[in-house]
Amino acid sequence: MQIATYLNFDGNCEEAFRFYERLLGGKIEFILSHGDSPIADQVPEAWHPRVMHARLAVGDQLLLASDCPPESYEPPRGIFVMLNVDDATEAERVFRGLEEGGRATTPFGETFWADRFGMVVDRFGIPWMVNYAGSKAAVDVGRPA
Predict the structure, then answer these.
(1) pLDDT over 60 at 144, yes or no
(2) What is the pTM of this model?
(3) Could you tell me if 132 and 13 are in contact, meaning their C-beta atoms sit under 8 angstroms apart?
(4) SS3 letters for 84-134?
(5) What pLDDT is recorded for position 137?
(6) Backbone torsion region of residue 21, taken as left when φ is above 0, otherwise alpha when ψ lies between -120 and 50, otherwise beta
(7) Second label for 142, Cα 20 to 30 Å away, from 17, 49, 81, 110?
(8) How far is CA 130 from each of CA 14, 83, 93, rounded to the nearest angstrom?
(9) CB half-sphere exposure, 145, CA atoms < 13 A
(10) Rounded distance, CA 136 to CA 115, Å?
């Protein structure tokens, strides 16, 4: 079994995934708009540029997403995409990249469980946690024991 995060966007899924691909060093494996899908003639023309399904691989992890129908979109609440990064400099780079055009909700800094940790809502409205355990790996709350 694999658990994957599935995000919903309000018409900017492809833009977000192109950004995440560059920032996270991933690879978009699949992206399909409603207009290019087999059901293009069954959805309103306004939906055609919206993404029906996207798949981004980052190492052996997956991030999946789509654009919601315009009248159905709700900003994410009560969830975060958690990134555990193995290098402090890389963690800082990723956090700052996500913060650009977005807003930090917890400044990137030291905590009792991690050498570096921060929370940010990116410019696409997606909440992220960026964690670098470093010397505190024994209490890292984001990794399996």
Answers:
(1) no
(2) 0.90
(3) no
(4) ECCCHHHHHHHHHHHHCCCEEEEEEECCCCCCEEEEEECCCCCEEEEEECH
(5) 73
(6) alpha
(7) 17
(8) 22, 5, 10
(9) 1
(10) 6
